Amino acid sequence: MRRVIFVLELLLQIILGGCLLMRAEAAPCDLNGEMQAGRTATWEYEFTFTNRTQKTVRAVEFMLSLFDGEGEGVFECGWLTVRQELHAEPYATFCGQIALDDFFDDLPDEPLQTDFFYASRIEYTDGTSFEDVFGRYAF
After folding, report:
1. N or C: which end of the chain has fewer CB within 10 A?
2. Is the pLDDT of residue 23 over 70?
3. How many CB atoms lie within 10 A of CB 71?
4. Do 64 and 53 touch, CB atoms closer than 8 A?
């Protein structure tokens, strides 16, 4: 009986551990970002994108959710989708900004916040792409 329990525990650890390792290895990029109020009353989301693949990136579609100071969503759908053409060599880091002014009729007076930022689609120069529809690798 002990042997059966030991084998079952071992199998469970292998299965669960394997799933965690697969998630970490499957992430094609690292993202980091923060909201910035510009010097000229503009809003930008500054980010760093690190390509963790052997392919060259040509474009990325980012998703982010924006909230006002009270935690209310800024957009009706809650999400902003922005496509950026960028060039990131394999294992290189790209620093960029997403200008948010074009998405507002009136700029908010209060600071904006985001709690979810991810690359929903990454396009590579070889014609292939990676999609993360559900934000599995969100920052």
Report:
1. N
2. no
3. 8
4. no
d(CA 8, CA 15): 11
**DSSP secondary structure letters along 1-37:** -HHHHHHHHHHHHHHHHHHHHHHHHH--EEEEEEEEE
> Sheet harboring 29-37: ordered strands across?
29-37, 43-51, 93-99
Measure the CA–CA gap between 25 and 14, rounded to whole angstroms.
16
In 23-128, DSSP assigns E strands to: 29-37, 43-51, 57-67, 80-88, 93-99, 113-124
Q: Are 60 and 121 in contact (CB under 8 A)?
A: yes
CA terminus-to-terminus distance, the chain: 45
pTM: predicted TM-score of the whole model, two decimal places: 0.72
